[in-house]
Amino acid sequence: MIVVAGEALIDLVPHESGPLSPLRPVPGGGPFNxxxxxxxxxxxxxxxxxxxxxxxxEALLEALRASGVDTGPVQRxxxxxxxxxxxxxxxxxxxxxxxVEGTADRLFEAPRALPAGTxxxxxxxxxxxxxxxxxxxxxxxxxxxARGLFxxxxxxxxxxxxxxxxxxxxxxxSWLGSVSLLKLSEEDARWLGGTPREWAAAGPGAVVLTRxxxxxxxxxxxxxxxxxPAPRVPVAxxxxxxxxxxxxxxxGLTRRGALTPAHLAALDTEDWRDLLGLATRxxxxxxxxxxAQPPTAAELGL
Length: 302
Prior knowledge:
Order of helices and strands: EEEHEEHEEEEHEHEHHEEEHHH
Number of helices: 9
Strand content: 15-25%
Largest sheet: 8 strands, mixed
Distance between the termini: 19 Å
Strand order of the largest sheet: 4-1-9-10-11-12-13-14
């Protein structure tokens, strides 16, 4: 079982360019997208978050269940659902303005226990920034690592939500000793001000860098470095592409029985070539569809 911990929200996606474009509400949030992608790939996955009891919250739960995600660990609350207003650039890349004050996911509390059979826990995005929930997710990250679970971190930095960049960068570095696999974008890396080799030396067995149309690069603590190109596809938008990468990597590692630090360290060049190839193919499919719509296992020939 893989547990994905973090926010679920509603993306408000414009139909066209311009500030007054009609908006289409779609389920989203980095961890939510990762959980849905894992479910569609056929992985055993549960979602650990706090979701509103409002109409948007019900839609989020329905979307998780429709993709085969166990929602048993989800906490509920009457506060409104977080909204993310997307802006699409000409190349389909998205930036966001967030409406987060008093929303349900900020009040997440660390659970006393995770579902039976949990082997890995994945964290990321707004949930690691917005207090008081951020401290609860951090508590869960450290506790999971202390139990020997495989942990994944995708910081998916949203600078507009971070009141003190210096404090956040310091906090990010403090997490690395509890992280098995770090996945982040080139934009995240520039903002955080470090390198994959530095981060791998601080804890993670591997660091995977997403590079947009240029594909993916992995750097391991053992010194392996490998890149994989991204397939050329018509891009509707890039919403959810990075989250799909995280899910595909986790699914590929599960299929290889590599959800332990020792197994991760033993992966060779061909293993990583296959893993990165799966992740780039999965993300490419997501990019061809508006909103975060990751592929199924059948669509990837799995």
